[in-house]
Amino acid sequence: MLANLPAQPADALLALIKLFAADDRADKIDLGVGVYRTTDGATPVFKSVKGAEKVLVDTQDSKSYLGPEGDMGFVEALKPIIFGNDFAAIGNVDGMQTPGGTGGVRLAVALAKSAGVKRVIMGTPSWPNHAQIMKDLDLGVVTFNHARDGAVDMDALKSAVADAAPTDAILLHGCCHNPTGIDYSVAQWREIAALLKDKGLLPILDLAYQGLGDGMEEDAQGVRIVMSTVPEALLAYSCDKNFGLYRDRVGAFYVMADKDKLPAIMSNGASLARANWSMPPDHGAAAVRIILEDAALTQQWLAELDDMRARMRQMRDKLAAAGTAGSVDMTPYATQHGLFAMLPLSKEQIEALRDDHAVYMAGSGRINIAGLTAGNIDKFIAAVADVSA
Ligand code: PMP
């Protein structure tokens, strides 16, 4: 039976980690995997998380099961942060904890399928796991071009929405688009929200990088605009980037719907969670809850997030200041958002960057902006100029 299984392609980014580790050139640069790095190239545990973990160790008196919805204190504490104080009080949003943002996306898409959704419309390129989750759930995918010439391709989005069938849903990145870094403006979000409302198209919002773009409030504008316009929406959330909790798998899933219908909808969420992972892991979500329930820890966390954002902004500004590097126009990177940007390089050029310059990036041309530092950015720009000249 098992011998029939064909080998699956290795995850390209994980393969890149191995190649990078095996490279003994001292000045190698890792722009591959999507984690934040300090100027020393480290991905340390946040001080606020360390503080919360101390409280957790001292006060936790049981590790007994919590149930498929996880830590509801965590789920509630995130609501004003994602939806805003006014919106959070309306009461037409309910949620549950999930294993990472990936669990949130999985649950959102699976729930949409249970409700009758047959296809998901999404912009490409996208986080590769989006398509993988749709495939695993046997859902159709309709793609449109996310960006063109360094800007959002609104025409492509509009025509995809216009062509949508009643059993379609649309997946949208809330902020810090992965992999392009090209986000919708507030005006574009308003336009999109109105289109979704007119068409009656269910949005699945993926908010995995709140706080890594322009700020916690600013990065939530898009999802708030959509949710205050349409009657129903699903939202997947990740705390793995903005709290640096990656391996602890901290995420959530929220549903906005008719208040009366929410309990029945959430019972579907719980039953899907039960079949997929039964219950989410507790530790990281409990640490987030402790931070959010404590004013001093919250201040400390927000300051840490400010530092991360400022460092990435500095790197973006430095790239843009270079103007062009070979055939690559670096100026748009200053106005894009989050951890990622795309370099318009060919497969051969990306390989040459690796072989000739020890610069490692995804085969798609995606770079992790946080892999750049004051110490390596000039070398990176020169390397891009060299391979693309
Ligand atoms: N959505 C997007 C767009 C992402 O880039 C990621 C992480 N790479 C996720 C969701 C899931 O994040 P995690 O499961 O690590 O919380």
UniProtKB/TrEMBL annotation:
Domain called Aminotransferase class I/classII large: residue spans: 27-383
Pfam family, one: Aminotran_1_2
GO molecular function, one term: pyridoxal phosphate binding
GO terms (BP aspect): L-phenylalanine biosynthetic process from chorismate via phenylpyruvate
Record flagged with keyword Transcription: no
Coiled coil feature spans: 298-325
A GO cellular component entry from the record: cytosol
Cofactor(s) for this UniProt protein: pyridoxal 5'-phosphate
Keywords, comma-separated and alphabetical: Aminotransferase, Coiled coil, Pyridoxal phosphate, Transferase
Family, per entry: Belongs to the class-I pyridoxal-phosphate-dependent aminotransferase family.
Subunit structure of this chain's protein: Homodimer.
Protein name: Aspartate/tyrosine/aromatic aminotransferase
Taxonomic lineage of the native organism: Bacteria, Pseudomonadati, Pseudomonadota, Alphaproteobacteria, Sphingomonadales
